[in-house]
Amino acid sequence: MIVQEQEAIDKAVEAITGDMGALWITLAAILVFFMQAGFTLLEIGFTRSKNTGNIIMKNVMDLAVGSVMFWAVGYAIMYGSDLVGGGFFRSSPADQGYFFFSADDWYNLFFQTVFCATAATIVSGAIAGRTKFSTYLIFSAILTTIIYPISGSWYWPFDDDAWLNTAGFVDFAGSSVVHAVGGAAALVAAILVGPRIGKYVDGKAQAIPGHNMAFGALGVFILWLGWFGFNGGSQLAWGGDDTIGATSVIINTNLAAAIGAIAALFFTWARYGKADISMTLNGALAGLVGITAGCGAVSAWGALAIGLICGIVVVVSIELIDKKLKIDDPVGAISVHGVCGFLGTVLIGLFALDGGLLYGGSGKLLWVQTYGSLAYIVWAAVASFIVLFILKKTIGLRVSEKEEVEGLDLHEHGVEAYPEHISQDK
């Protein structure tokens, strides 16, 4: 009788723990969902007012299209039971995976859906102000349906069929799986679309200031908040040791963001003689992106180190890409997500408590982290180039000069976001 009672108690506790885990993942997914508002405000603030409505539409459609396509196809490619192409991606029978119907796993679908939308939105900022809306919609659909799910299938199913998981790769919440993939796609898109009119004059980069730094700052605060769900929710459980794990991840996330902002502030202050606002905001985002891979694998000191490094590197990277490589990225998305996504993933090889070089590791983890992140970048860049090159040769990537000068709001959507146009955009 006592044994049966204990078994009943254990079963009840297990059920409660499972429900608490599902609740935590759902709440975390809601926070990540809210990050879409952050990306929208950041991109609006860092660009010209005449393109505000276009940016709103792109970010809304990233989420809308991504939600439908990931539910219909992407989730099965990422988490399906059958391997295709020697494990290059996954698949599932229609009654098991495509057009997802698994009531006991809805919360995981929702959590992964908002991650997928995040990867797509990264591209939007890098090509703001000069890209056809129709072309962007097609690319966003392909990224959320195929490109991102294939890359995710290499690691996040956490089984022996995921080749990077088997190799010992570590990417807790997606510095590479989400951010480096989005950053690589953004790099290719920015190159193929080309710079905004007036960005480069006689070979020199010209500043094109954003129209509302307050929107940009609010966007960063929303992203910072949402990141607690992005990283903390990736613990995928709540209760006991998982509660400690999730909250330690949140602390590491916050520390990296804070020191990233501080590092960018003082680095630009020393470099330019002024405390640069946009670089400081991007420094916080760089710290967030950098710690996303290792937030569950490093100590608080490791999180501070990663955030510090990324906060400085993002400033150097933005300057290099803008002034030397002459690639026009209005919001710094390539540097924040691509460069710092790669860097944060690789730095696990130094700072991981288990296997990091600074903690007695042999160097194996550093090597795995490097080639694993590069695999994501190469895949996203090659796939994006193929898709965007085809689109460029068929329907085109770029709006006309007249449309760009007068604003995408007016020509792509037939309305201006502001009743009275801001004079700097005329």
Automatic annotation (TrEMBL):
Subcellular location: Cell membrane; Membrane
Transmembrane regions listed in the UniProt entry: 21-42, 63-89, 109-129, 136-156, 176-193, 213-230, 250-270, 277-294, 300-321, 333-353, 373-391
Keyword Membrane: yes
Keywords recorded for this protein, A-Z: Ammonia transport, Membrane, Transmembrane, Transmembrane helix, Transport
KW Acyltransferase (keyword) present: no
PROSITE patterns: AMMONIUM_TRANSP
Membrane topology: Multi-pass membrane protein
SUPFAM superfamilies: Ammonium transporter
InterPro entries found in the cross-reference section: Ammonium/urea_transptr, Ammonium_transpt, Ammonium_transpt_CS, NH4_transpt_AmtB-like_dom, RhesusRHD
Domain spans labelled Ammonium transporter AmtB-like: 23-418
NCBIfam families: amt
Family named by the database record: Belongs to the ammonia transporter channel (TC 1.A.11.2) family.
Record-given protein name: Ammonium transporter
